[in-house]
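Minutes, project check-in
Item: structure for the 256-residue chain
Input as provided by the requester:
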Amino acid sequence: MELRKTARACNAGTDDEAYLEALDMFLSGTDEKATTHAYLRRVVDRLPARRTLLDIGAAQGTTTRYLAPYFERVVCVEPSEPMRRALARACPQAEVVAEPVGEARVDARADLALLSHVLYYIPRTQWAVTTARVMEWVAPGGVLLVLLQNPDNACMRMVRHFTGRHFDVRELVGELAALAPGLVGRTGLDVVPARYHGRSLEETLTVADFLLSVPDAPSPTREAVEAYVRRHFDNEDGTYTFRHDQHVLSIERPAP
């Protein structure tokens, strides 16, 4: 897949098969799902109840499928039609809401809610509003996990270099106190490690372009991305590696 073709598809949004193809290529080379699932299992083990899972931005359902056996009910919010088709195959028992999180109507009180790598696509000024909306769907005693890449990792340094954009979930913590009473209790911040390993330059360039598909940001040239990848990620054996550790902000809703 050509770099510019991928960029156009990704910048057009997640309603494109090319976006799903690039996502699958990224996931095939990263240990992100393995490390994230291990972390989530520890969270699930500590939950006081496991009635409902709410997965916002469920994508193709890999994590939904992993967590579903631990819950009586699974509800997903996923606005992308190609993603919903993959989600239905991965987790057919899930109830799926097709609208974006800002427009979705969710009839659920989740014991565990995930807002995983969604805030990149939401204006920074709307992060707190979006979080408050999701917390309304969390049951008292339940928890919301907000996942974003650590802004200091190698991947996000590349994003900042080419787009000037900076995404830091830690900035949200200070805004939570202003939310409606009863929504936010204890909070915590963890780091979940992740590493991408590309088997070839072409594969790594496609993945880099996918990761650079920040909404409303210009697409860099192939030559510029290739030069960056060679300089920063080259293992000198034909493969390429970079870290993309994640921040996980946990927000508990107080029990009555």
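Outcome recorded: Residues 3-252 form a domain with the Rossmann fold fold (CATH 3.40.50.150).
No further action items on this chain.
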